């Protein structure tokens, strides 16, 4: 009896408060969203490793012998020990996808393919398999699509290893134990490093454990929220460069250190207030509404401070103005300069209003999704072919 096939799903994330200021030592709060990336692995006979990116209609395949030549050290892989990929190995891995003719427009995928090849080989060695990826998350919009990919992939690879004690005869979605999730999170972080260089770790952590987390100077606290919050996420579809935006905030901080220190301190207080509010219980409609009012107010205050930092954008301002017409409050999420905007949808808000605001935003060329936030993290499902 062996584990041969598995499917996992891992959620994307939003930053509810504290982006940018977190880089300068303030607290940030992030939450999972119920849009996921899924990875299926099927070990198969033959001598090929295949990667299918369904949404992009891309397929890669490598002869196992070729992978062994390029990444030679994994005859006996050790999935229980997360390993960073050295820069020399990363360079050799590049030769594996250079031969695959990735279309020019999709070249940003190359680092994701490298992360795949590293995580697969370092945990499973040279087993032939077909790995299929599907995602509900837009790429490069600040919703944590790369982290969700790394978490779903690491989760699937570890679920098929001896590191996870799962009952694979069980039907439906399963969750891993905390120690197993810790291991998935560490491997996913190694994948994120290949994709992003120096990630903070917030995205893979939210995607692994789900729910909400507070993050300050690299220290992560998992929050216990008991009221579900619903957000409208508007993708402005304006591309942004996180690195340049972060650098812009640092330059402004050098020019006006005293003023910017006050801005960062204010953001820190907003994030802490938000964490407290999220964790208070609300047992009836009045209490829920009060809680949502405060969350909205803090989001609006944070947006004002993000404007102070210079990371808003004309497209973001259009979303803010449009939602405010319906008395709904919004803030950018992630790096800003375009990307996605969050609008809290209060529990008692009529669906007619939601439909109207979505129609107006979409008529501006934006793309809207409604998302539940603070839901499950990584989940695993063994299909019928999981046992032989
Ligand atoms: O857009 P994202 O999800 O990559 O968010 C970037 C968040 C920043 O605070 C701007 C940068 C960071 O590393 O925390």
Automatic annotation (TrEMBL):
Main EC class the enzyme belongs to: transferase
Gene Ontology biological process terms from the UniProt entry: isopentenyl diphosphate biosynthetic process, mevalonate pathway; sterol biosynthetic process
Stretches assigned to the GHMP kinase C-terminal domain: 294-346
Pathway of action: Isoprenoid biosynthesis; isopentenyl diphosphate biosynthesis via mevalonate pathway; isopentenyl diphosphate from (R)-mevalonate: step 1/3
Domain GHMP kinase N-terminal as annotated: residue spans: 123-210
The keyword Amino-acid biosynthesis is annotated on this UniProt entry: no
Major location (coarse): cytoplasm
EC numbers on record: 2.7.1.36
Reactions catalysed according to its record: (R)-mevalonate + ATP = (R)-5-phosphomevalonate + ADP + H(+)
Places the protein is found: Cytoplasm
Lineage top rank: taxon: Eukaryota
A cellular component term, taken from the record's GO annotations: cytosol
One Pfam family it belongs to: GHMP_kinases_C
TM annotation in the entry: none
GO MF terms, alphabetically ordered: ATP binding; metal ion binding; mevalonate kinase activity
Keywords of the record: ATP-binding, Cytoplasm, Kinase, Lipid biosynthesis, Lipid metabolism, Magnesium, Metal-binding, Nucleotide-binding, Steroid biosynthesis, Steroid metabolism, Sterol biosynthesis, Sterol metabolism, Transferase
PANTHER family, A to Z: MEVALONATE KINASE (PTHR43290)
Family per record: Belongs to the GHMP kinase family. Mevalonate kinase subfamily.
UniProt protein name: Mevalonate kinase
Organism from which the protein derives: Spinacia oleracea
Gene: LOC110778865
């Amino acid at each position: 009896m062996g584990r041969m096939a598995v499917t996992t799903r891992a959620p994307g994330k939003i930053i509810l408060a504290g982006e940018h200021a977190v880089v300068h030592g303030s607290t940030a709060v992030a939450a999972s969203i119920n849009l996921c990336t899924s990875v299926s692995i099927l070990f198969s006979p033959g001598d090929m490793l295949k990667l299918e990116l369904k949404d992009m209609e891309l397929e890669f395949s490598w002869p196992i012998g070729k992978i062994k030549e390029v990444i030679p050290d994994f005859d006996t892989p050790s999935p229980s020990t997360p390993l960073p990929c050295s820069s020399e190995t990363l360079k050799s891995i590049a030769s594996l996808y250079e031969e695959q003719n990735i279309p020019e427009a999709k070249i940003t995928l190359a680092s994701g393919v490298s992360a795949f090849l590293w995580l697969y080989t370092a945990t499973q060695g040279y087993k032939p398999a077909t790995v299929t990826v599907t995602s509900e998350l837009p790429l490069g919009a600040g919703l944590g699509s790369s982290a969700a990919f790394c978490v779903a992939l690491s989760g699937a690879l570890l679920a098929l290893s001896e590191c996870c004690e799962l009952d694979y005869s069980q039907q439906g979605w399963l969750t891993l134990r905390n120690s197993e999730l810790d291991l998935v999170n560490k491997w996913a972080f190694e994948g994120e490093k290949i994709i992003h260089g120096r990630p903070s770790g917030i995205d893979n952590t939210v995607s692994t454990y789900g729910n909400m987390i507070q993050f300050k100077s690299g220290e992560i606290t998992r929050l216990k929220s008991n009221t579900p919050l619903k957000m409208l996420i508007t993708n402005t579809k304006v591309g942004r460069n996180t690195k340049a935006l972060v650098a812009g905030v640092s330059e402004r901080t050098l020019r006006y250190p005293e003023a910017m220190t006050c801005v960062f301190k204010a953001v820190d207080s907003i994030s802490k207030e938000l964490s407290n509010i999220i964790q208070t219980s609300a047992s009836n409609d009045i209490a829920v509404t009060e809680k949502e009012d405060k969350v909205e107010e803090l989001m609006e205050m944070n947006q004002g401070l993000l404007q102070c930092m210079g990371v808003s954008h004309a497209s973001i301002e259009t979303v803010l103005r449009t939602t405010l017409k319906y008395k709904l409050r919004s803030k950018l999420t992630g790096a800003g300069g375009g990307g996605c905007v969050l609008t809290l949808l209060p529990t008692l808000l009529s669906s007619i209003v939601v439909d109207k605001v979505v129609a107006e935003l979409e008529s501006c060329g934006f793309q809207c999704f409604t998302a539940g936030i603070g839901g499950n993290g990584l989940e695993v499902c063994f299909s019928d072919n999981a046992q032989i």
